[in-house]
Amino acid sequence: MEELSPRAQAKRRQITDAGRALFLSQGYARTSMDAVTAAAGVSKQTLYAYFPSKDELLIAILAEALQALGPQRGIEPPRTRAELRDALIGFVGRLLDTMLRDESIAILRLLVGEAVHVPELRHTFLEALPYQLLERATAILAGAAANGVIVPDHPEISVRLLVGPLMSYVVFGGLMSNDAPEHPGTGTIEWLVDAYLRTLDFGGDA
Predict the structure, then answer these.
(1) Domain 6-52 carries which CATH code?
(2) What does the pLDDT look like over 26-82, one tens digit per residue?
(3) Taking the domains of the chain in order of start, what are their residue ranges?
(4) C-alpha to C-alpha distance for 49 and 186, rounded to whole angstroms
(5) CATH superfamily, region 63-197
(6) What is the pTM of this model?
(7) Among positive and negative, which fits the CA dihedral 105, 107, 112, 113?
């Protein structure tokens, strides 16, 4: 996608900010693109130039929430077990820091609630969060495998052993909790990553 100018980026953010506020206050199904146009203070032509549909606007809002996870590509592939451990701890930490924010939990609650009544949102949710997380974690493992650090064995299944427990903190400690989202802490993150590393095949590396 062509990189936007600073002015265009500001306009796009103006629209996503308005859309996020409306989605969270009124719900996805009850928010019209006309309402987003009015709240953002832009013309309908401008709105549709950036976001041709309401689904695409929602996806963009979700993508912004995931930006703190870091770039999906361009990361140096791990060359040692220690580097793989550091990469996974960094990924897990950024994931939980991002997803356990009050606004992130509010967006997840919106999606889960609306997906019951708006079937097309189910695929949007899967593409924007679970599949995105699986893909990013898989990219780290693929880099380590390419450097001979690990011997991949059913990586599409293995990666779920890492992402599944992380999502349990998001669901149980955030989405389904009446209290403020609870972060498990650095010690727990390191324990989870170390437990996961024990499931991987490091070849001749003990």
Answers:
(1) 1.10.10.60
(2) 988 889 999 999 999 999 999 999 999 998 898 888 777 766 555 555 568 999 999
(3) 6-52, 63-197
(4) 43
(5) Tetracycline Repressor, domain 2 (1.10.357.10)
(6) 0.77
(7) positive
Residues belonging to the chain: 206
CA geometry: angle at 20 spanning 60 and 97, to 5°?
A: 75
The helix/strand count (H/E) of the chain reads as 10, 0
The phi and psi torsions of 89 (rounded to 5 degrees) equal -60, -40
Distance (Å, whole) CA 64 – CA 139: 20
Instruction: Please list, residue by residue across 60-93, b when 16 or more beta carbons sit within 10 angstroms of its beta carbon and e when fewer do.
Output: bbbeebbeebeeeeeeebbeebebbbebbbbbbb
Quick: pLDDT tens for 172-197. Answer: 988 888 888 888 999 999 999 999 99
Determine contact, residues 167/95, Cβ cutoff 8 Å: no
* 14 CB neighbour count, 10 Å cutoff: 16
